[in-house]
């Protein structure tokens, strides 16, 4: 060999070595590196595939996530894992945490899969993305929301039945959906100083005689509501700058209550009748004795 050839040989050798090293480095791992013999693939689960002259994984093994070796396949998500690839081959969006296959953060397990968790009122594509909030669905607007006739509870964990009427059952006041209502003793009630008007299915502020009012429903005295249906002895008089007054056929009693006009006369009639009976009885007793 002449010196020129030697130099050429050294350069070529260096290039080939460099290529070899680069290849090895690119793989950075034992897996997929070139092999000629079984001994070239001496790592867990490794084998030399002579067809392609590369280290690969044995049957029942799969590449580890760092591609440094192979890990045994697991048959189910319940089996202990050491590498996330064991979980990922069984189910998308999983990882191995503390030797258990779990959904990746932000995902949760439902209907045998890991679903992206969409927050309440956030964009969704499937009901399962919302169902981590009990009773929540992916609505027509493609956002997570409570199903029809339910409302989100205060801590945002669950949809509760919406109550639309007085005395409907409740756990939280958000369920009492009619105006000025609240949950008291597990029943929807009007807030303090409000009363319920059945025909309007809502609560109105209590206004007394002489108070300014917005409508007839507001004018209220407790006595009227001892009847079922309640008497309407009061009215919001629009002729008198919207003030609560006694309604037609009702008069203001000395106690400041609206009472039936006839109530007084019927009372005197009763007294008259009683008196005449008493007089009659006395006379009869006198005659007969
Ligand atoms: C070797 O690799 C080829 C190509 O990827 C594949 O078809 C073949 O099944 C492998 N052989 C073994 C024994 O893994
Ligand atoms: C969850 O899995 C699906 C299906 O493999 C994939 O398209 C998606 O990118 C994954 N999301 C995350 C955050 O890994
Ligand atoms: C959230 O509120 C519900 C009642 O609607 C209750 O049962 C549950 O324990 C609460 N959860 C938290 C985390 O506070
Ligand atoms: C209001 O005034 C009109 C006409 O003056 C009368 O017909 C109506 O009965 C009055 N309404 C009340 C509630 O007093």
From TrEMBL:
Record carries keyword Membrane: yes
Keywords tagged on the record: Membrane, Signal, Transmembrane, Transmembrane helix
One Pfam family in the UniProt entry: EB
Organism domain of life: Eukaryota
Designated name of the protein: EB domain-containing protein
UniProt keyword annotation of Plastid present: no
Stretches assigned to the EB domain: 68-108
Residues spanning the membrane: 267-288
Signal peptide limits: 1-24
């Amino acid at each position: 060999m002449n010196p020129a050839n030697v130099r050429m040989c050294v350069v070529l050798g260096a290039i080939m070595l460099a290529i070899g090293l680069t290849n090895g480095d690119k793989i950075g791992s034992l897996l997929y590196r070139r092999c000629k013999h079984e001994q070239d693939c001496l790592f867990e689960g490794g084998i030399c595939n002579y067809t392609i002259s590369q280290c690969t994984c044995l049957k029942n093994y799969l590449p580890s996530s760092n591609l440094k070796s192979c890990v045994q396949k697991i048959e189910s998500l319940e089996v202990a894992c050491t590498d996330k690839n064991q979980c990922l081959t069984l189910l998308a969006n999983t990882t191995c945490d503390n030797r258990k296959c779990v959904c990746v953060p932000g995902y949760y397990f439902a209907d045998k899969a890991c679903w992206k968790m969409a927050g309440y009122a956030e964009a969704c594509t499937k009901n399962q993305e919302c169902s981590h909030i009990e009773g929540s669905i992916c609505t027509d607007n493609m956002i997570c929301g409570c199903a029809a006739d339910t409302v989100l509870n205060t801590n945002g964990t669950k949809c509760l039945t919406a109550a639309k009427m007085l005395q409907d059952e409740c756990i939280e006041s958000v369920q009492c959906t009619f105006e000025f209502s609240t949950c008291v003793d597990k029943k929807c009630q009007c807030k303090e100083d409000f009363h319920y008007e059945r025909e309007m299915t809502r609560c109105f502020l209590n206004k007394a005689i002489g108070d300014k009012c917005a409508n007839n429903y507001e004018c209220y005295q407790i006595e009227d509501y001892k009847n079922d249906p309640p008497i309407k002895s009061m009215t919001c008089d629009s002729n008198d700058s919207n003030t609560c007054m006694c309604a037609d056929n009702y008069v203001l009693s000395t106690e400041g209550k609206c009472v039936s006009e006839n109530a007084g006369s019927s009372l005197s009639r009763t007294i008259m009748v009683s008196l005449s009976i008493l007089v009659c009885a006395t006379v009869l007793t006198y005659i007969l004795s």
